[in-house]
Amino acid sequence: MKPTYLALACLLLAGCGGEEFSDLHDFVKNAGADMRGKIEPPPNVKMYEPFIYDNSTNLENPFKPRKPVSNSSGKRGENEPDMNRPREALEAFPLENLKMVGYVLKNKVPHAVVRAPDKTLHTVKVGNYIGMNFGLITKISDTKIDIEEEVQDSTGDWSKRENSLQLLEGAKQ
What we know:
- This protein has 173 residues and is of the alpha+beta class.
- It contains two helices and seven strands, in the order H-H-E-E-E-E-E-E-E.
- It has a domain at 89-166: SH3 type barrels (Roll).
- Helices cover 14% and strands 26% of the residues.
- 10% of the residues are buried.
């Protein structure tokens, strides 16, 4: 009995495998046959030609560090600060590390109290120097110190730069 069931099952399976979906199989098989991609050839690449900076081009090499123009005449640079004056105590510290912590009037002259990084307190007035860039105190108010610094550029000339220290309020002192 079992062999007859097996034979019957084989006949049924053979009957289901007809050409019912043959057109679908042919479509899937041939769908991309006529669709060929067209890729253009890559463009010709020009060879890199390095540019040589030499004396014949009269151009400076932008990749080499530039040396400041030396002042061979022995004259001081334009606006150069007085290098021979005695230094004040607060000129030993960068301006960013100094804090204005108070304001005082002494004989109707405004003074500011400045704390240095070493925790010492200094009293300054207009005309004192502060910071490492030859900072001259030009004005003191109850909230800030106005400072005029002198900085040197790459050519050796000096220029003035405005800066200030704000009063440190409400912070831990």
